[in-house]
Amino acid sequence: MGTDHDVGASTARKQPGADTAHSRVILLTLCLAVLMVQVDTSVVNLAVHAIGVALQAPMRMLQWTVDGYTLTYALLLMSGGTLADMFGRRRVFRWGAGLFTLGALASGLAPSAAVLVLGRVVSGIGAALLVPSTLALIRVIWTDPRRRAHAIGIWAGTNGAALAIGPTLGGLLISFAGWRSIFLLIIPLGLLVGWLVRVLPESSDADGRRLDFPGQFLAGAGIAGLTLAVIERGEFAGWSAAFSGVCLAGFLWVERRAGDTAMLPLALLRNRALIAAMGVAAAMTFGMYGVLFLLPWVWLQSGALSVTWAGIALLPMSLAFVALSHQSGPWSHRFGARRLMVWGMTLIGTGIGVLSCTHAGRPLWLAEIGLLLTGVGMALNTGPVLAVAVAAVDSSRAGTASALANTARMVGATFGVAVLGAVYDTVGAGASGFSLAMRIGAGVVLGGTLLAGRAIR
C-alpha cells in the first residue's frame, strides 16, 4: 500500500483507545460523518410531501426518493466494507465523503423527480463507503472492549442527534427556503468532514480480500428485485419477485464457490451472535423508518400540522434517543447486551403499537407517547446491537462485520418504507391504511424482540 499506508497503520496500532484529545477529535470526525448521513435521511422523510407537490410525483416515486438512497446504501455496504479493509479505511472514508456531497448537490438542483432519485442514489453510494469505515475504525482504534462500547454508544447517539436536528431544522428550511435547501445544507458539512479526514489514522487488512463482483451483482439484483416488487406491485411484481429469488439463489451458489474470498463468507452465517444482531437491527429499522416516512406524510396530507410543526412533533422520539443512547455502553456492561436489546425492542414495538391506535396521527398527545416510547427503545437497542455485531468477529473482518450490521439496518429501512408505504397506499391513504401499516410495523419489531431474547448470549 506504500509508505503512507505503512505510517498510517503504525499510527493505528499506537492508538490504545485512551481518552486523549486526539482520540476525541477522531471520534468527532467519525460522528460528523454519521451525522451527515443520518440528517440527510431524516430530513427527506419530512420533505416528501413538498417534493410530491413541487415535482408532481406520485406516492411510488416518493417511496423511491427515500428508497433510492437506502437501497443503494444497503446494496453496496458489503463492498464498501471490503474496500475499506483492502485499500484503507481513511482513504475509503474520503471517497465516501466526496460522493455523498456530490449526490446532495445533484439532489438540491434536481429539475425532476427522476434526477432527484439519481442524486439520492449517488448519496447512497457515498454513505455505503463512509459508514463501514467509521465502525471499522472504531473497532481497530479502541482496542479495550469497555472503551469501544463507550465509543460505539456515542457513535449511535449521533444517529439520535441527527433525528433531533434533521426534522426540526428541515421543517424550518422547507417553510422558509423550500425543499431544495435541505439537500444543499449537507454540502458545507460534507466539506468539513472532507477537511477533517486528515486526523484519521490509516489502517487496512488486505490479506486474502478482493472485490466479489459476481456476488455484489447478484445480491444487489436480488434485493432490488424484491423492493421493486413491493413498491410497484401489479402483475409486474410476480416477475420481479421470481427474478429476485433466482438472483439470491445464485448469490449463495457464487459465495459458496468463492470460499473465504467471498463478499459474504458463508462461514459468517454460522456466527449466531452476528446473524441475530443483523436480524434485530433489520426489524428495528423496518418499524422506525416506516414511522418516519408515513407519520409526517399523514400529518401534512391531512393538514393536521404544518411542515414546521410536523418536524417539532417528531422531537420526542429523537430527544429520547439523544438523552439516553450514550448510556447504552455502560448499561450493556451492567445489564448485558441481550437484556438491553430485549427491553429496547419491546419499547419500540409498543410505541409503534400506540401509533396504530391513533387516527392518522391524531390525537397528537397519543402519537407523542408512541414516539417517546419508540425513541427510548431505540436508545437502548442501537448501541448494543452494533457492539454485538462488531465484537462477534476477529478484527481482520471488522469492515465486513460493520458492513453486515449496517446492511441489515438499511435493508430493514428499505423494506419498512416499501412495505408499509405500499400497505398504506393499497388499503386507502387514510386512517385505516395508517393503522394497519403501524400494526404490521409493530409486529415485525416484536418479532425482533423474540430473536434477541432467544439467539443472543
Describe this entry's structure for a reader.
- By secondary structure, this protein is mainly alpha-helical.
- It folds into 2 domains: 3-201 and 263-455, Growth Hormone, Chain: A (Up-down Bundle); 212-262.
- It is built from 18 helices and no strands.
- Helix 6 runs antiparallel to helix 12 (307-313), helix 11 runs parallel beside helix 15 and helix 15 packs antiparallel against helix 18 (431-455).
- The radius of gyration is 20 Å and the shape is globular.
- 60% of the residues are buried.
What's the helical proportion of residues?
A: over 70%
Instruction: Indicate the mean pLDDT.
Output: 83
Radius of gyration: 20 Å
Give the total of beta strands.
0
CATH class of the largest domain: Mainly Alpha
CATH topology heading of the largest domain: Growth Hormone, Chain: A
Overall 3D form: globular
The CATH homology group name of the largest domain: MFS general substrate transporter like domains
Sheet/helix structural class: mainly alpha
Q: What is the CATH architecture term of the largest domain?
A: Up-down Bundle
Total number of distinct structural domains: 2
The helix count comes to 18
Which series of helices and strands comes N to C? HHHHHHHHHHHHHHHHHH
Short description:
The chain is mainly α and 457 residues long. It has helices at residues 3-14, 21-55, 59-87, 89-108, 113-141, 145-177, 181-184, 186-196, 213-232, 236-258, 272-302, 307-313, 315-325, 328-335, 337-356, 364-391, 398-427, 431-455. The protein folds into 2 domains: 3-201 and 263-455, Growth Hormone, Chain: A (Up-down Bundle), CATH 1.20.1250; 212-262.
